[in-house]
Structure prediction request, 504 residues.
Amino acid sequence: MNNKIGHTRWVIPEGYIPPGSHGPAPEFTSHEAFCVLNTNETDAHLAVTIYYTDRDPVGPYRLTVAARRTKHFRFNNLNDPEPIPLGTSYSSVIESDVPIIVQHTRLDSRQSENALMTTIAYPCPN
Amino acid sequence: MNNKIGHTRWVIPEGYIPPGSHGPAPEFTSHEAFCVLNTNETDAHLAVTIYYTDRDPVGPYRLTVAARRTKHFRFNNLNDPEPIPLGTSYSSVIESDVPIIVQHTRLDSRQSENALMTTIAYPCPN
Amino acid sequence: MNNKIGHTRWVIPEGYIPPGSHGPAPEFTSHEAFCVLNTNETDAHLAVTIYYTDRDPVGPYRLTVAARRTKHFRFNNLNDPEPIPLGTSYSSVIESDVPIIVQHTRLDSRQSENALMTTIAYPCPN
Amino acid sequence: MNNKIGHTRWVIPEGYIPPGSHGPAPEFTSHEAFCVLNTNETDAHLAVTIYYTDRDPVGPYRLTVAARRTKHFRFNNLNDPEPIPLGTSYSSVIESDVPIIVQHTRLDSRQSENALMTTIAYPCPN
Prediction:
């Protein structure tokens, strides 16, 4: 397979980790995730920047997706340099040293039945 | 970071603010939102136009997203030049003087459990 | 505003009208919709073709969106040349004589709480 | 109609078949689906590759969408060369010998009310 699938910079304008959950953890813990596919023969080194409404951006969060692997990251679990506060509006920019593809998903279980939403992230022209 | 991320005109064809809500306000108030990320070093000045089914477009609604900030706007809260009526079909065009990225989200809590949907808005070629 | 916003052909691969509903009609009737924005100074004349799994495509369904207006069409309500059967997989291709922007939404109220999903449709290069 | 609609390679980074369901099968069985439209006058021969987090990609899964037909495939039902385990993160790459259009949908009925999400898949430039 042609290894050059995707883009090296992606944006997710919507971000909000619902504060509260119903159902067994971790499956039903309210969360936001970004799913990354790396079809390359080399590892993808990611740098994630989190933007806020009322303070400077935070990052980079450094993550790795191995060659020919997918990884579904929860924003809830980012903690270096600092965790993302719950119940707070944010946006994210995901940069990689090789082309990747990114999808955004939220599971909201604040009420007793969960709700889902998803979209392919916005790919910046290479 | 390269500041030229995004587009200066975005479209959201779907628009409908559900008339009615369950759960505590404002988190569970039924709403439609557009989330804007401005990665530029300068503020983004937005002009939003609302299109209707049976009358002329209304706008511009003028909004600002500060440099290197995100802002999640609820259509429910737009009120100058006039509020958007609940339970009414509309579309929106969001224009900015600098490139931005826009995502559309609806939370519908008319029934006792909320439902969610999201999509990256349609970016018009620059 | 520049009137040339959008594309003249859009595709929605997913199509399925849930057979059954809970809650008051028409708001909570299970439905699939495509929302069309026409920013042009002239009416948009649409030709919709419905594709099925096991028989020939059906169409065109002819619809109009007035100049500078939006219209949210329910697939449930298409009936000329024939209605779309409930509980059946289909896809749609939406063509217009002027550029438009299209978004796909489903409300599923088969169970007692409704579920929502949406996406910008696939724009074919002009 | 111009037959060259779509792309020959599509990516869905998000993949997770919820392990558990409520409601009558098969409509309410938790599932992930990819809906394919083939507007060509010839059959589309698909090769699907599934990527995982911690092992090598699996595939190709070979599928066909007849000329001028749509087909909604459930990932749950793929089984040659092997089924996709439930409750496991994966991604998919869908390749075709003719241009197609692909949309991703999940129905999650693990809780008593179902949740839905959808997005047009990511089209790789032809």
